[in-house]
Amino acid sequence: MGYPQGEGSDSFDASRKDESYGGSEQYPPYRDPNAQPQNPTYQDPQYQNPPYQNPQYQNPQYQNPQYGNAPYAGGYQVPAPTNTLAIVSLVLAILGLTFLPLIASICAVVCGHISRGQIKRTGESGSGFATAGLIVGYVSIALFVVIVGAIIIFAIAAGSASTF
Question: pTM of whole model > 0.90?
Answer without folding.
Answer: no
